[in-house]
Amino acid sequence: MTAIRTQPKQMLSFEQFVKQLPDEEGRYELVNGEIVRILPIRLHEDLAYFLVKQFDKEIDRVPLNYRVSGRFMVRTLTSNGREQGRHPDVSVINKTLWESQPFAYSAITEPLQLVVEVVSTNWEDDYIDKLDEYQRLGISEYWIIDYLALGSRNYLGNPKEPTVFVYLLDENGVYQMTAFRGNERIISRTFPELALTAEQVLDV
To answer: What mean pLDDT is predicted for residues 66-84?
Structure first.
């Protein structure tokens, strides 16, 4: 996924960002005060779409009071208090919370239940910046899908292997990580009965 800065030299707040989103089709984020266009490759999009479908099936099967989308915008904060506007590849929100403001834009300021980021060439964003911002916001569960093994060996081992990382927020508000590879079943707090292996996700 390639990030293209569309409006440099403007230090926008999240509210200004939402109001000034370009009309052109695509996904956009607010990063360090600038509007950045996100251009995912097709494999990236296919993997995100696969997860949306799997989560939707699980919500209907159990059933669970969630709503899933790949179109939500999330307001986060950096360590120095700067507002960011993140656009996760997949977001899961409490349906009651979503329906409580039916006329609001799909820009979320409350903690989501789960977010998924599919790793691209700018992998540090997912492993470092977004991890910190999602933890700071209090998002209960965060998945990093590194299907091309783009991250560093510190995360992926040596040799590097495609991996699904699941971060769960503990009672102290700190993420605890578990890595899943091969035929290991992914353990999710949001979807405790989900029958999905790392291999099924990584080989989409």
So the answer is: 94
Predicted local distance difference test score (pLDDT) of residue 187: 98
List 179's β-bridge partners, or say none: 165
Residue 22 has pLDDT above 60, yes or no: yes
Residue 105 structural domain:
40-72+87-202
Q: What's 173's domain CATH number?
A: 3.90.1570.10
**Sign of the torsion formed by the C-alpha atoms of 39, 101, 13 and 31:** negative
C-alpha–C-alpha distance, residues 89 and 55, integer Å: 13
Q: Which pTM was predicted?
A: 0.91
